[in-house]
């Protein structure tokens, strides 16, 4: 069915039209996964909430603006993809899903995150790229198991110092934001393995040699006059990288990272975000994290 036809039918709330869009969802899927990506749906199908053993729910690339309170019944949910929708705020019911480990919120219209997000103590991967954040929400600093934070393509100018409390954080992706200086808090996070500050307005890079866990730093497309100094063996992607005579292109670095990952738990709609100057969510489950 073409997207145009789906879009027209999506306006009709009758059960028959919704079933036409969603297909047969009468029984719990054997793989405990429901993928409703790119279905042009405008309201969440309540019958999904009957699948209380559901582990993965993909709602990417739709026209959703809210979620029903009945979603709270999905207490076994571990992966939730809400990217490429029309959310202006994170529905609070999401914060009741305490087993969530991966949450995709990218490409919406969200300006802030609720304090209730701190209830998601098992969350280890959070994608909030391409939204309307002007500041990195401090509630993120209350997610003790967070390993991957992707906040690129937002008008963010600074990162809160509280971020250093996230001792499990291994990678932070801030490409395409409005950083005018290298975030000082990152200098106090020796456990970081990947730092991406590509496409910002950073004019000077401090030494990163003391970040002993660092494996990759991407600093290209900044108006900087120096390259960040790093410890031996750390890969740098940007100008004046004397350790690599011809720095590899961004897509080559991404390809190398993808080879070391398992992508079976990542929704296909999220992996198409390369054209937004972000990296593939495959890194969300990489062995580096």
TrEMBL record:
GO cellular component terms listed in the entry, alphabetical order: cytoplasm
PROSITE patterns membership: LRR
InterPro entries named among the record's database cross-references: Leu-rich_rpt (IPR001611), Leu-rich_rpt_4 (IPR025875), Leu-rich_rpt_typical-subtyp (IPR003591), LRR_dom_sf (IPR032675), LRR_domain-containing (IPR050216)
Pfam families: LRR_1, LRR_4
Gene3D superfamilies noted in UniProt: Ribonuclease Inhibitor
Database matches in SUPFAM superfamilies: L domain-like (SSF52058)
Superkingdom classification of source: Eukaryota
Record keyword Repeat present: yes
Keyword annotations of the record: Leucine-rich repeat, Repeat
Record PANTHER family: LEUCINE RICH REPEAT CONTAINING 10 (PTHR48051:SF37), PTHR48051
Protein name, UniProt field: Leucine-rich repeat-containing protein 10
Species whose genome carries this gene: Pyxicephalus adspersus
Lineage: Eukaryota, Metazoa, Chordata, Craniata, Vertebrata
